[in-house]
Each structure stands twice: as structure tokens, then as C-alpha cells.
Write a structure and sequence with these properties.
Largest sheet: none
Oligomer: single chain
Structural class: mainly alpha
Radius of gyration: 16 Å
Shape: globular
Length: about 100
């Protein structure tokens, strides 16, 4: 896919998104996942999308940048096959194990 086509997709996916991201808003999290799905369905390589979107990251909405990372992560997880993943979350105020 040509760079201009990727630029058009990024412009389309960016419409209505703020430049900054509020991690406490569930709507923004859902938008991130929805855009990540669109990225994977677009047929464009994630590297081509990253090349355009990260050219000027301060002008690209943070939700879109997160979506690109989510799409890339999904591809990488598919590539590594079945596995078990453990995630440890720190408790509020905890700093000993961080």
C-alpha cells in the first residue's frame, strides 16, 4: 500500500480523537481497541503505519499511537503460539516490588 493511502487511513482513524489520552476513560480504551482491529483488517503493514504515524508523534492522537502498539502486540502474540502469561499489578502506594 502506498504511503499516501496509509496517510489517508491515519487521517481517517484520527478524526475526532484528542491529542492526549486519558487512561481513566473507558471510551478511549474501547476506541483504541476498535482502531487496532481496523489496523489489522486494513491490510497495511504495521511498520508502514508506524512509519507515517510516528513521523510527527506530537501531532498524532495518543489513542491512535496506542492502537498501533496494540495491533503490533496482537501480531507478535499470534506469532509466538500458545503460552501462559502472568501479569503482576502493584497495589496502590506499593513501591517495594516495583
Amino acid at each position: 500500500m502506498a504511503t499516501t493511502d496509509v496517510e489517508e487511513l491515519i487521517k481517517k482513524w484520527s478524526e475526532g480523537l484528542p491529542l492526549i489520552r486519558d487512561l481513566t476513560l473507558n471510551d478511549e480504551t474501547q476506541k483504541c481497541l476498535d482502531i487496532a482491529t481496523k489496523i489489522l483488517e486494513s491490510g497495511c503493514s504495521v511498520d508502514a503505519i508506524k512509519q507515517v504515524a510516528f513521523k510527527e508523534p506530537s501531532k498524532t492522537p495518543a489513542v491512535l499511537l496506542s492502537a498501533i502498539g496494540s495491533a503490533e502486540s496482537k501480531l507478535k502474540l499470534k506469532a509466538c503460539g500458545p503460552h501462559h502469561m502472568t501479569c503482576v499489578f502493584a497495589m496502590y502506594g506499593e513501591q517495594n516490588r516495583i
